[in-house]
Each structure stands twice: as C-alpha cells, then as structure tokens.
Amino acid sequence: MPELPEVETIAALLRGNGQHTASSIVGCRVAGARVLWIRTLANLEAGAFCKRIKGQSVETIGRRGKYLVVSLSRDSLLLHLRMSGDVRVEPAGHPIESRAHDRLVIRFEPGQRLVFNDTRKFGRVWLVDDPQVVLGGLGPEALDENLTAQDFFAMLTGRKRQLKPLLMDQRFLAGLGNIYTDEALHAARLHPLLPASQLTEAQAGDLLAAVRAVLTEGIRRNGASIDWVYRGGDFQNYFRVYGRGGQPCLTCGAAIERLVVGQRGTHICPRCQPLPIP
C-alpha cells in the first residue's frame, strides 16, 4: 500500500487530469531540490541528485506497476511509495518542514513544490537516464489490453506457487498488492492458497477479469485510504473481504476469515472461496 490505483490517482493529480490545475507539474521547470533524508535516494548522492535534476522540465507523468514515472527533459524521475509514501504539490511559499516525515522537496518555476512524504522511510526515488534500468524486471501491466486471457493462462500454467504470493510478485504481474489481490481473488471465487498450475483456462480468464475490475473500480474511487498511508480515496468503503474479518460476506453471508499467506494478512470467504481437496 499504496498499490496501482493509488499511484494512478497520484499520477493523474500531477498531470492535472488533462487540465491546468494547481497540482499539475507538467511543463514546469525544476528550480532546485532539497533532500531531507538521504536514503530516500536509491541511486545518487544528494548533491549529485540536486545538481542533475535542476533545470530539467517535466514532460509527461505516468505509472508503471506501483512506480510513479516522471519523464523529464533529460532523465526520468521514478518514485516508489512502498508502505507509506505519498506525494503532494503545494505553493513554494510554505515552510519546507511544514509537515513531519517530508523526505524530498523539488521546487518548480514559477512557484510550485513537489514533496515526497514517507512516514516509515521505505519509499525510494531514482533519477536515471534509462527507466528500464529500474523497471525492466517488472511483469506485464494488469490493465494492459494486450494481455489476453489466453496469455494469462499460459503465465499461470506450470507455476506451482500459491495464487496470492504469485499475484503479488511484481515480476509476474505489475501493480497488485495485498488489498486488491484479496478483493480480486474473492471476486473470482478462488482461494489464495490454490496453486496457480491448478487453474483451468476458464478460471484464469475469470481471475484476470476480476483483477481488472477491482483495479478499475479502485481507480474510479481514487484508491483506498488506510490509516495515514494515503489520502483522498474511498474504495475502503467498498471492500468485500479485505479488513472485514468476522463480518458477513456481502455475497453469501458467511463470516469472513483472516489467515496468513506468505506472511501477509489475508481475508477470504470460506464459502465463496473453498480450497479444493487434493
């Protein structure tokens, strides 16, 4: 958390959703930067980062998996929010330390400022000339229309890993995390411990459709706001299983169960998502 819908929401905010807004930084020129916690930078020292990014202009803003991708006039700025990262745009006149946990500040002309805030300090930022150096190992995008149900079934075939850890593996499929994996598996009526190799072609198609449906709905609702981690979304009000342990399943009424899969808290409906007996 944040996952694909939250990162996509932030990217849209920074693009201004196609309009000129106070939060849009597209076309803005970097006036300078300040690193408030050095380990936020994944590949450069603070001085080198500040010198290299200064004077570059923002051309496009996108997303790859859970990475925010800011294409500059010479380099690419990549941000991974990890557990608690967030990004905001504010007037440059605010005091830089106006909020706790700010880790990186990038100032733009004529007067905006992008702030990377990260409570738990797990988030990272890269400034690279080739984004594939960082992004090259990611699997296909879950929302990529070129990824067919047949392709997805072929990806699953022969893999003995349990469904949930596999779906959360960014090398397999880019963008899913704990929340949207639980929601997608429930929608597809599949148990998270089921080995991927046991899925039929029809089940694989249903799972891909479920993944896309929950991600699309998450984006439509500006993501999910959990604790302090992310602000602005309301998808958490529409969870069907995640975080609802002990509550009735909205599909069948059975009590939602919480279990641990791959060291992650996992929520299922035991009636809608039975684990087949070998």
Entry summary:
With 278 residues, the protein is α+β, with helices and mostly antiparallel strands. It has helices at 4-15, 46-53, 132-135, 149-156, 163-168, 178-187, 201-220; strands at residues 29-35, 58-64, 67-72, 76-80, 85-91, 102-109, 112-118, 124-128, 257-261, 264-268.
Q: How do the helices and strands line up, and which of them pair or pack?
A:
Elements: H1 4-15, E1 29-35, H2 46-53, E2 58-64, E3 67-72, E4 76-80, E5 85-91, E6 102-109, E7 112-118, E8 124-128, H3 132-135, H4 149-156, H5 163-168, H6 178-187, H7 201-220, E9 257-261, E10 264-268
Helix pairs in contact: 1-7, 4-7, 6-7
Characterize the structure shown.
The chain is α+β, with helices and mostly antiparallel strands. It has two domains: 4-135, MutM-like, N-terminal (N-terminal domain of MutM-like DNA repair proteins, Alpha-Beta Barrel); 149-268, Helicase, Ruva Protein, domain 3 (Orthogonal Bundle). It is built from seven helices and ten strands. It has helices at 4-15, 46-53, 132-135, 149-156, 163-168, 178-187, 201-220; strands at residues 29-35, 58-64, 67-72, 76-80, 85-91, 102-109, 112-118, 124-128, 257-261, 264-268. A four-stranded antiparallel beta sheet has the order 1-6-7-5. Strand 2 (58-64) and strand 3 form a beta hairpin. The two termini are 33 Å apart. The mean pLDDT is 93.
